[in-house]
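Progress narrative, Year 2. Work on Cytochrome c domain-containing protein from Effusibacillus dendaii advanced from sequence curation to structure prediction during this period.
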Amino acid sequence: MKTPKWKKRVWTGIVLAGVVIVAAACSADKPVASNTPAETPKETKATQPKVPSMNDVPQGPEGEAIKLGYKLMNETNTALKEYVGNQMACSSCHGTGGTDSTASLVGVTAVYPKYISRAGKVLTIEDRINGCFQRSMNGKPLPYDSDQMRAMVAYLSYISQGVPTGVKERPWAPEINMKNPPKANAADGEKLYKQACAACHGANGEGTGPLSGPPLWGKDSFNIGAGMGRQWKAAAFIQRNMPLGEMGGIKQGTLTDQQAADLAAYILSQERPDFSLKANDWPNGDAPADVPYETKAKQAKAGQ
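Result:
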């Protein structure tokens, strides 16, 4: 019998994937603005490959690892509390264990190892997972040879088994960034947040739960080094995905560029944990303009 590709990827230790950063969800109790189509044209999303059901997980050690990985995705802050420094889970951003469209992880084990400019080097799946633990989870890295790390790789490989190994892109999960951002107004963003987001994320950004409404600022949220700490990535995520479904007369994806930018500006103007290693990011001096901190490479370039 031919061995399924996903088993080869998991148990030979070949790691070809990555995890992307964290994000949050806005909900609304009442309309806050007209449902004007977003000014930035939305990308046409490709159809996500069929995701295997957790009911079809095989018996034996492989299946147990996959199940543990799924549990860790959804209960990260409690199941791995010694490695998580806030009240978020992987599924806070990568909904339904990374299988829905908010920040899909389907196929992630097919595109890595991959060069990441923030690190200035090629990363493996373990590297990328640990990047999220240190930034989005404001915690510390998992041991690379731990059962927990192996389980997370096993789960990500399981949901990615329909994607050929070695592909360069995942069209159903494109890079999220606002290409032509407007000048943001945090004061307007505060008004919109209070009317449309506080019900899920709390009046003070404290959240209502890792899966129901993750914290957006404060000690229990992502730190400054997370991808969602960048203004235009956050704005693009909010515009593309929020609110989930339709809340208070506002449909998902109908926020304008200005509204999304204002919301991101307000959220990111609040206090959040620092990231001690942030100065080492983008070592080649190619940090994007919306990175909210100085890097060593940028400082060195300015001093030339």
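The radius of gyration is 19 Å. Residues 101 and 173 are 7 Å apart (CA to CA).
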